[in-house]
Design goal:
Number of domains: 2
Distance between the termini: 40 Å
Strand order of the largest sheet: 2-1-3-4
Strand content: 5-15%
Order of helices and strands: EHEHEEHHHHHH
CATH class of the largest domain: Mainly Alpha
Number of helices: 8
Shape: globular
Structural class: alpha+beta
Helix content: 40-55%
Radius of gyration: 17 Å
Largest sheet: 4 strands, mixed
Number of strands: 4
Length: 211
């Protein structure tokens, strides 16, 4: 699907929205940044709560469409700029696995890691959205071992999500040691888009600190 409309990304440096910024760079998309200073609490102001009542980034606006929630944004953008080839099309045998691993991140992996980091009991398996931590980690590590990317040989928007997130989690020691994950993070870190977003975020963070 082609579009002449720019995407506006509601962004704060070094947050989950950095992954969406990286995706926009990977897609070669035309975009504007609406930068929020989260340390100053701008995400809790009335103007942004009208965009996302959760007071969270990322969010995007594209024409009349307002999209929040990380995975929804990845699906929307990768389909919108489909010529970049980062989203298997409906009918492609990889479309189902692509959606699976995008949603697995939000529905299982991140809740499991957050519970573990905060030393919270996940509750009984019948109620926990991810079942148990060890199985959740083993499931994604097994998939990454088929590499080099989440879906094998083909880089997709799922790798932008997982590459960004795992880089942070490995850096903060939130992942059990795994050579498979370390190798995946190293491959992802060599993408030019990653370096560009680091430069952007470093500049924005410095501007906010000086304000």
């Amino acid at each position: 699907m082609a579009t002449n409309n720019k995407v506006t990304l509601y962004h704060s440096p070094n947050t989950r929205s950095s992954g969406v910024l990286t995706l926009l760079e990977e897609l070669g998309a035309s975009y504007d940044l609406h930068v929020l200073n989260m340390k100053a609490g701008e995400q809790r102001g009335a103007a942004y709560l009208a965009v996302n009542p959760m007071g969270k980034v990322p969010a995007i606006r594209h024409g009349d469409a307002l999209v929040t929630e990380q995975v929804a944004i990845y699906v929307y953008l990768a389909d919108l700029f489909s010529s970049a080839g980062l989203a298997p099309l409906i009918g492609d045998r990889l479309r189902g696995p692509y959606l699976r691993w995008l949603v697995f991140y939000a529905a299982c992996f991140e809740p499991a890691v957050v519970d573990k980091a905060l030393k919270r009991e996940p509750g009984p398996p019948s109620m926990a959205p991810y079942g148990d931590f060890d199985t959740t980690i083993a499931t994604i590590v097994t998939q990454l071992s088929k590499g080099p990317w989440v879906l094998g040989d083909k880089l997709t928007a799922a790798d932008v999500l997982w590459g960004t997130a795992l880089s942070w989690m490995v850096g903060f020691g939130l992942m059990p040691p795994s050579q498979t994950v370390a190798d995946y993070v190293a491959r992802w870190g060599k993408r030019p888009s990653v370096a560009r977003v680091k430069e952007i975020d470093t500049r924005l963070a410095a501007e906010q600190a000086a304000a």
